[in-house]
Amino acid sequence: MNWQGSLDSGRAYADTKALGAALRALVAQGLDRLPLPGGGQTLERFRRLADVAAHDLRLCKLFEGHTDALAIMAELGSPPTPQGSTWGTWAAEPPTAKVRVQHDGHCLRVHGRKAWCSGAAVVSHGLLTAWDEQDRQQLVAVPMQQPGVCVTDQGWHAVGMAATGSVEVVFDNASAVAVGGPGDYLARPGFWQGGVGIAACWYGAAQQLGQVLQQHCARRAEPHALAHLGAVDSALHAAACVLRDAAERIDRAPKADARELAQQTRACIEDTVEQVVRHVGRAVGAGPYCQDPHMAQLIADLPVYVRQSHAERDLAALGEWVAGQSSERWQL
Questions:
Q1: Residue 177 CA to its chain's centroid (Å)
Q2: 2 Cβ contact partners less than 8 Å away, ≥ 6 residues apart
Q3: DSSP for residue 142
């Protein structure tokens, strides 16, 4: 995707308001209408997410949440979204922040506090997990511009990804619409397919950092920097192969449980990110960190974004699954 002419330089995104304006610009041009996961063009979806991440990870955080919401609602059979609407997808469930749903005749009302709501101050709608009277998880869509919705300034003190404004939102008798039925959010095939999409965002940022090193080496063929470039190329090549394979497998079996695939892919891309950041930093020195605004922003943002991975906890979950499988899974 060619973003030239569609977006300002990433250095212009000074705050959440600027990111919101950029997201609305993408929506107005129809650039948010990505191919749906499992529809035969999943790799194209991943490529577009990676493109936005390479441009600016903070914008990608809002863009990925918006496009994920569109995919979720399409998968669960919701009506078309209002024209020009922008969405956040907020599904974190820390023990200190929980939203409850109450039925009010044919309407739903939501109460409680939701944490980690990226872009809450600038999106028109939120798609969030809540809990019904039977303590079942229920996905709901909430218009943000209504009484009973309070976007706080609490819960977000990040330096990297600061402009995403991933604050806490308090709901007090706000109206909502059910999306799917209880338990559908986690049970649908698209849940883990979307998890692979987030890895594509990580990859896009790592790829952009690799290009910084490539350009550095093109200007001056210093042996140690070239060795780092070789390592970066190897890591990015492997990661790209994994993402292409994941996209193909999702398209081949769109209704299959993609949990194992997502965990494997995310682990691979997270490892690639760590390698690329290390090699690029050692090769280019302090100069680009201090004088290249785009690289400096990516370096600040990427470690925060990649912490959507749960690190060893996710690896342990994958290992628990693998322990009961045949060792033939690793044969060529």
A1: 24
A2: none
A3: E
